[in-house]
Amino acid sequence: MDTATIASIVGAATPLVYAVVGETISEKAGVVNLSLEGSIMLSAMTGFVAAYYTHSVWVGFLAAIAVGALMAAIIAFASIELSLNQIAVGFVLTLLGIKLSSFLGNSFVGRQGEAVPHMAIPGLERIPFIGPVFFDQNLAVYGSYVVLILAYLFMYRTRRGLELQAVGERPEAAYARGIHVNGMRYLYAIVGGGLAGAAGAAFSLDVILGWREGLTSNFGWIALAIVIFGGWNPLRAAVGAYLFGALRVGASQLQPVFPSLSQVLGLFPFVLMILLLVLVYLPKFRTLGDRHGLVRRFLAGDPPGALGTSFRRE
Amino acid sequence: MKVWRADVARRVSSGAWPVVAAVALVLLLFVAMGQPPFRAAKLMWEGAVGDRYSIGNTLMAWVPLVLAAAGLVVTFAAGLWNIGVEGQVVVGAIAATFVAREMPGPSIALIPACLVAGMAGGVLWAALVGVLKTRGKVNEIFGGLGLDFVASGLAVYLIIGPWKRAGIASTSGTDLFREQAHLPTFANTTLSFVAVGLAIAGVVAVYLLMRGTLFGLRLKAVGRNPRSAFLMGIPTERYVIGAFAICGALAGLAGAIQAIGVWHKLVPSISGGYGFLGILVVLLAGFSAVWIAPIALFFVMISVGATQLTLWLGLHSAIGGVIQGLLVLFVILGGGWQVRRRRARQGTAEGPSVGEGAPGGPAPVEQVEAGV
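Structure tokens for the assembled complex are given below, as produced in the milestone run.
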């Protein structure tokens, strides 16, 4: 595998990185945003159209982020204010987002739009191997690194980050400590949804370029599974995202070699998704890192205790 | 009977405002797209029930939707999100296609064999989700979704591979089945009384199962609180897989009917999205078996009617799904809003006693990711 292929994997995984980091943040605070597939699709369409009319990828990204944030805000509102089931609302929004993007984006299918311009980072791109792979990309890709690192540092190295975890883990205890549980949940759900929106824009303005139905080829669902595989740790989730990015690139490179297998290759990510989920809950996998503290922390991963529930102060 | 009437009245009155709001939003959407809203509504109505052909089409769309929804009532009662229902429909259709292609004999033997094969296929695919959940700890949402994609990939593979039409491999479908494998239709419409009869039987069976049997009662116990159900001596694993199997049988039957009653061949989009749509129906019905039949009918009227909008106004075919999605979203949010107001009026003495029977109210799954 040459560096160009690896670089294309990093590029292909970019939307997934945004999506899994966003979903991890949201779920850490206790809010499941099941609408990922629909959110990403609708924001991909919106981002494309906004950039198409304004000739600015920035506006495209902002519009996409707004759409993703709005979808997440609906779920948070339904859960927090109305005590509704997050999965139910998320599922409805998934279907609605997909259909709405097909309906509203119909006249933009196949049009040529804006693309995030290529921009190597001077200096860093010279580093052997690492340079061409990670720093000879574009701003959308660099943004995903920044988001990933910031999310990790925020979650595990700041007081606010600990509060975020407390809100998703033991909301009663967090509330007793004076944390505004539901306010935090709104905030992080919306931030996570905004990142899902950025994932959509990364699809239509960078990785796929353009808008068509089924643009994400169901990778929104895979992102949800990667969050579990990632044990609600953004770094580990990113590993999963790059793994599936590699799969995407691999499948597209193998397709001309084995044309008869194109259907089978397309299915592979979904089979792998199931297998990885089986793997993370195998007792053996969980005890794999017992001897090394660092490995153990990386492999340990239980869902936030209050995931998917509503919090109401007594 | 009185209780039943009060229930209807409550539902109609509580459901009315969100529906009005959703309809208003859809009309606005038409205006924004520069389309005449009332002409669109009229076109939809005529497309759905205008003449006996369209009524036939509507009923034939109702059959798979209501069958999938009936199955989902069972899995929801057990607290399970069977998103794999879509794949179960597809595998049912694949199994029925296999029998229709391979088995000789007259209709009287062939058609039942196709239907039974479809059910078996659905059961197999659903049980797989159940085993993945109980043994592999894979949350049924992801196990089911993964198998959905695998099932539709399998269908496409069969269509362009082993079952391709003589000479050409095209995603337009396999060869038509021979006449003996077609469900008999009424006069020259697409309506099959056998299919409608099976759908009604499926709904009634699920209603009776949930209402009058020990299995149904225990299943609900598993759904409410799997741990205490287990401690009470209910073999939860068997009940979970059983619920999946029942849903898979009904979804597989829906797929078989799609294959031998509607398309008369296997096509990539054989499920018609009725599995996912079934989930919306059940959410709107508040997880109750009584309400799925009328709500499913309403939904297919939208779907079938919306095809007229594509035909006459050139709108994208997704418009039907947009209307259905908005409708469900508004009704669920509206239901939650009413529960909240009722609670506010009663004072906050009680905790979140999530409105019984309110659409979207009872949360069948508390813990989402980890499984039981």
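Residues 349-372 of chain B have pLDDT under 50 and may be disordered. Residues 129 and 355 of chain B are 30 Å apart (CA to CA). Further analysis is deferred to the final report.
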